[in-house]
Design goal:
Layout lengths: L1 H14 L1 H29 L11 E10 L2 E5 L6 H8 L3 E16 L2 E10 L3 H4 L4 E3 L11 E5 H8 L8 E5 L4 E10 L12 E4 L6 H4 L9 E6 L5 H15 L1 H9 L11 E7 L19 H32 L1 H9 L4 H38 L11 H27 L3 H6 L5 H37 L9 E5 L6 H12 L5 E7 L15 E6 L2 E9 L4 H5 L3 E4 L12 E5 H7 L8 E2 L8 E7 L14 E4 L8 E6 L4 H15 L8 E2 H7 L2 H35 L1 H9 L4 H35 L10 H27 L3 H6 L2
Parallel strand pairs: 4-9, 6-8, 15-20, 17-19
Antiparallel strand pairs: 1-2, 1-10, 1-11, 3-4, 3-7, 3-10, 5-8, 6-9, 7-8, 12-21, 12-22, 13-21, 14-15, 16-19, 17-20, 18-19
Helix pairs in contact: 1-11, 2-9, 2-11, 2-20, 9-12, 9-14, 9-20, 11-12, 14-20, 14-22, 14-23, 15-18, 20-23, 22-23
């Protein structure tokens, strides 16, 4: 029986070659796209799931209910970790996590590596297994060092690193550290990454800050005892915060606050580490955060693509149902039962879907290398072999074959045998179903067109918006840790300032954008001024900072070598000036740290976006407080021969610092790198949306072909009665145009709600304009008309004599 059904199915597929090829083409492309999209979604949701006790791991953050709004901050004070562990038995392990860099020297090799300053519990909290060494003892020594396998291979080649001594320079002086462990290289889907781990006691200025509860400079992670409830523990933190954060709480209350439902203005909270990858609204999180909206959007596109391809399949089978009605009538006359016919038609559906599945797998394997390269996605088809993925994959396949095969079969079985054989089958109801499916299909397509246009517009806006500084002619170079920043800057100036292509040279403790070293940091200080707290971003800069970055000075003067007191001076931005009162600020003094000299305001600059466009411009104070804090050099070159200037700078760098790698990058590259996650996922989104629209076009073309076949005699009669080609084309196209317009109207409110919510995640964003919806409708109409008109013109130009002779 099965063999017979298979033979008949194969013969029927060969009879309808054109429509079956269209079906297979649409389904195979849909399968290939869905595989890549769903694997990407699964990869994003898999972040950090390799940690064995993930459900018990949390990151500590503070919530401050200020009058200006709620602030969530993950930057913690240094005494908090030991105090928490001592006070709460529910906390099994706790570790601080600070960022740093070091110049590493071993024999004749020297290079720069990133350091994470941690407590010994770190390797008990997270699953970073050691290839060599013991987790429990690797960091017991204050001068012990854990390195990754990648670093071990680069520094030691085939030598056993354990027990070897490395010279590290990260505090302005050389220190010896002994390698006590080698960590296995961690997977790509890890929010935390490191080259080297060392004890937190080596963190810069550790001793001075161990009694300060109002200054945060690192992240804090905890692993709770099994079964501990997060909400209950957070309530237990309330008396702890009242005891240790009294100064911060009193300051918030003094300056105005909006207490939470429990009456608290300052709380310690726990963020489940499993949510870290998607927690884009927290300040100072470690890792590569993305908005969950992107991931859900990719999943939705995958579902849309599959749904559109399935609608194509159903519509074509429904359209062919009328042409196969007599076949069904004859079979029923010869005694075929309903289930026999259903199984026969379902066999044909399964056969088409199997061919499309194999073709889709082949297509996805062919385009996977390009997909991985262009979208920086590390997915592999091997992920499909996981049991959960296989079961989901075959469940979707089974549902598609059931839905796409059962309805057309059921529709044909409803035809009365006598009517079928007489040729009087009524197709009104199937036409309604076809229209509903087409409207659904083009609603999804129009929705994707609108979302694609808005996404593209927002990405262009972010890339092209003026940031308040010159980013096309300025090169940012990490100075490394081979020597103090002030000394490195002086060497650069002595060597480069006489070169004709150099306009200006300066430096800063913080980079602008995200440089090639991947490091980013922000230092915020708070102080009292006229009876209220002032909070400002605190950034150490060097001479000629404004000139190098081409910034606008509104009042006062810049830092100058002619004034020896400039080490106790600050230049502020407009937002900071507003906090200080806004008028007559030049010459005013502020006390930043108790016991330190007062800082004098000597200049006010125009606001500039020193952080990404996701965030509003905040108060900023530029200072020259500590010359050794300079970590990045900024070199501005003339706007001619930029590539040549970059190459020349690289050559000069290697002459000045022969042992330090050159990691320079243009500031416009740095700013674009800030949005690499959004850009990567947006490109996938746009590509997926384009493919979904193309599949819709394939289905519409097939429907147009089938419609023309069914209306062959009508077209012939109209031509005989004098209708022109244009009239016939308009007649045959107008039904499809009405459906597209209806689909557009249905798509508008849904698209606006989705994209408006997405845009809210950006502090600087476009406004959704009415013309985007008009343009999307025009695109959908052009696509539909171009697709349908091709077949309509062909039908209108056909010889009416042949049309009227056809049966």
């Amino acid at each position: 029986m099965f063999k017979n059904n298979l033979k008949v199915a194969w013969r029927n597929l060969l009879k309808g070659k054109v429509f079956n090829l269209i079906n297979i083409a649409g389904l195979s492309v849909a399968v290939a796209c869905c595989i890549l999209l769903f694997l990407t979604v699964d990869y994003e949701f898999s972040y950090d799931h390799f940690h064995q006790d993930l459900k018990d791991i949390y990151q500590v953050y503070t919530t401050e209910n200020r009058s200006s709004g709620i602030e969530k901050n993950t930057s913690m004070p240094e005494p908090l970790a030991p105090a928490l562990k001592a006070a709460y038995p529910a906390i099994k392990f706790v570790s601080r996590y600070g960022n740093g860099q070091a110049a590493v020297r071993y024999k004749d090799k020297q290079t720069n590596y990133g350091i994470k300053f941690i407590d010994p519990d770190f390797l008990q909290i997270f699953t970073f297994p050691l290839a060599k060494g013991n987790i429990k003892t690797a960091l017991q020594d204050l001068h012990g060092l854990v390195i990754t396998e990648n670093v071990a291979h680069a520094v030691f080649n085939q030598e056993n690193p354990v027990g070897k001594t490395l010279e590290l320079n990260f505090n302005g002086e050389l220190q010896n550290f002994t390698v006590s462990g080698v960590a296995k290289d961690f997977p790509d889907n890890s929010s935390l990454g490191f080259d080297m781990l060392m004890r937190f006691e080596n963190f810069p200025n550790y001793e001075q800050k161990m009694d300060r509860w109002n200054a945060g400079n690192h992240s804090l992670f905890v692993r709770l005892q099994p079964g501990i409830d997060q909400a209950s523990l957070e309530k237990q933190f309330i008396p702890f915060t009242s005891q240790h954060f009294t100064e911060s709480i009193n300051t918030i209350k003094r300056d105005g606050s909006i207490p939470d439902a429990s009456g608290n203005v300052f709380t310690l909270n726990l963020l489940p580490f499993a949510q870290n990858h998607f927690a884009a609204n927290f300040f100072g999180l470690e890792g590569n955060q993305v908005s969950k909206v992107y991931i859900i959007a990719l999943m939705a596109i995958g579902i849309f693509i599959l749904l559109i391809a399935s609608i194509n399949f159903i519509n074509l089978n429904v359209a062919r149902a009328f042409t196969r009605a007599r076949e069904v009538g004859v079979r029923k006359t010869l005694g075929a039962g309903q289930w026999t016919l259903i199984i026969q038609f379902w066999t044909e559906t399964v056969l088409v879907c199997l061919v499309a599945l194999v073709a889709g797998l082949l297509i996805s394997s062919l385009i996977l290398p390009g997909f991985r390269t262009n979208f920086r996605s590390p997915v592999t088809l091997g992920l499909l072999l996981q049991p959960a993925h296989l079961s989901a994959f075959f469940t979707i396949f089974f549902l598609v074959t059931i839905v796409a095969g059962f309805y057309p079969a059921w529709l044909m079985l409803r035809y009365k045998t006598v009517q079928v054989l007489k040729g009087t089958v009524n197709t009104a109801k199937p036409g309604k179903v076809r229209n509903v499916l087409l409207v659904t299909q083009f609603t999804l397509s129009t929705l994707l067109i609108i979302c694609t246009l808005i996404t593209w517009q927002q990405m262009r806006y972010m890339q092209n918006k003026p940031l308040g500084y010159n980013r096309t002619e300025v090169i940012s170079v990490p100075l490394g840790r081979e020597m103090k920043g002030s000394k490195a800057m002086q060497l650069l100036r002595d060597k480069l300032q006489s070169r004709s292509e150099i306009v200006a040279i300066s430096g800063s403790a913080n980079n602008l954008g995200l440089g090639t070293d991947g490091s980013t940091s922000t230092h915020i200080v708070g102080f009292n001024y006229n009876g209220r707290e002032i909070r400002t971003n605190w950034q150490r800069v060097d001479y000629d900072y404004l000139k190098t970055l081409d910034m606008k000075l509104l009042e006062g003067r810049v830092f100058s070598r002619s004034f020896s007191t400039d080490s106790n001076s600050i230049i502020i931005n407009e937002q900071m000036a507003k906090q200080l009162g806004g008028k007559n600020l030049i010459g005013k003094f502020v006390t930043i740290y108790d016991g330190y000299p007062k800082m004098q305001v000597i200049g006010i600059i125009r606001d500039f976006n020193f952080r990404s466009l996701r965030d509003e411009i905040e108060p900023l104070s530029l200072n020259m407080e500590n010359k050794s804090d300079i970590s990045y050099a900024f070199i501005r070159v003339k706007p001619v021969n930029l590539l040549s200037s970059y190459d020349n700078l690289k050559k000069q760098w290697h002459q000045i610092f022969p042992n330090t790698e050159f990691n320079g990058s243009w500031l416009n590259e740095n700013t674009e790198r800030q949005y690499r996650s959004e850009k990567r996922l947006s490109n996938i989104f746009i590509s997926g949306a384009t493919i979904a629209i193309l599949i819709s076009c394939i289905g519409l073309l097939a429907m147009a072909m089938m419609t023309m076949v069914q209306r062959t005699k009508e077209v012939g009669i109209r031509k005989v009665l004098g209708s022109s080609v244009m009239q016939i084309v308009v007649l045959l196209s107008q039904d499809f145009i009405k459906l597209v317009l209806l689909a557009s109207v249905l798509a508008f409110p849904v698209a606006w709600l989705i994209m408006n919510k997405w845009l809210q995640s950006f502090a600087y964003r476009i406004e959704i304009s009415w013309w985007i919806f008009g343009l999307a409708t025009m695109i959908a109409l052009v696509i539909a008309v171009a697709t349908v008109s091709f077949q309509a013109v062909k039908a209108a130009l056909a010889n009416p004599v042949k049309s009227l002779r056809s049966e």
